[in-house]
Amino acid sequence: MVSIYENSMLHINGRWRPSASGKTIDVINPATEEKIGQVAQANSDDLQEAIQAANDGFKKWRYVPTFDRYKLMRKVATLFKERADKVATLLTLEQGKPLYEAKIETQVAIDRIDWMAEEGRRAYGRVIPARSSHVSQLVIKEPVGPVAAFTPWNFPINQAVQKVAAAVAAGCSVILKGPEEAPASCAALVQAFVDAGLPNGVLNLVFGIPSEISDFLIPHPIIRKVTFTGSTVVGKQLAAKAGAHMKVITMELGGHAPAIIFEDGDIDIALKVLSANKFRNAGQVCIAPSRFLVHEKKYKQFVRGFTQIAQNLRVGDGMNPKTEMGPLAHERRLKAIQEFVSDAVSKGAKIETGGQRKGNKGYFFEPTVLTNVPTNARVMNEEPFGPLAPINVFNDFDSVIEEANRLSYGLAAYAYTSSVKTAAALSSAIESGMVSINHHGVALVETPFGGVKDSGFGKEGGLEGLEAYMNTKFVTQAEI
Ligand code: NAD
Q: Among 309, 331, 406, 465, which has the minimal tally of Cβ within 10 Å of its Cβ?
């Protein structure tokens, strides 16, 4: 089969081009382990040019009326929609997720662009009544300035569009460092902005060695905001660097979502919704349910049901329409998941199903269910980011809340209960940026997305997602 996969270049100041050094990084299809293409590796000359472009781009874009920004972004959404099938194929080839999941990711991106386009028109300030009749007091929202955005490989389009759509709607320019593991679908997103007529320099795309790029961009005086999605470890390093240079930040970091099934919860719905969200994208989702805590009266039934679902999942190449779960996105994750399982088993956990690499070609891992997992097992403490479901038992409200809040993570939390009282007590007690009860309702563009504690700082989505790219300026003027 002739692959439609494309090599990815840098996009700087309105031009797609190779890196100044000519260096590239290989792109591997995780389902076959074959090299399918390459991506340009930026050096400091490229980054300097991107900085200059973002500075020039910002000077133009910030004064473009919001209505014109809106019209352009609607055009981006239309173009991306026309290209969605092709982009989804690129995404599956480079990242591994099943094609239908890749298609959903393109649809979600369109939704995000549309919504932020609209919301940009409502970046209202306000008038504050003054103490004197000769004075006016205005609160004005202004774009924060050129943004350095760092996005990961698990949702190569969506992690990028969350940042880019909000920043562009707000009037900022962006240097986006996309994922080297899965660059082509992210580049296709940028191409849609270019083709819709975004002025040169407003959106620049670079790839390379992540630490070299963040070391260069974050301290640079032209960059006014740093936004990152990725692991907590890296996020803390980047936030510290940004703090040293007093840059505005948004940090979307790791999670370890508790999923609590109370005695009165609807177990059929819980099994259906939680398993779908556990194994989506092979578990490489920051809001995936990660610690299953089931009331003792429902425990056996839940373990049985979840194990059966895991065993029946069709794991394979995402390009096969029958595939329900693809491979892990790269070799590092395969090793990490194997280590999580061996560690848990060595500490006394039981494997109900799975627990091993699947086959010896491609980064496939069996959907895995673990029970009796001790609290000191690594999988109960570190973000698993893979198809692992540790299921433990609880017997009262206080102890399950204590377990849910035990970790330094606080991104998402899930619960199933038919009691309004339990739901209210839980949503108040849980230390988490997002709580979803009796369904999976997080990560819509109109709702705020983000964590507390070590899961990060700031929000993407909702009014807050646009606000994150704006400064509030107060202007007071007296008549003379
Ligand atoms: P990693 O921690 O090295 O990388 C995570 C992301 O951060 C990648 O996109 C990478 O390019 C970027 N990154 C790493 N160092 C950077 C730096 N110095 N400057 C700028 N960007 C940098 O590891 P990984 O193997 O890619 O993923 C491991 C863990 O990362 C996962 O287990 C998961 O916990 C976390 N992760 C989280 C998300 C998320 O959506 N929150 C996405 C991807 C990975």
A: 331
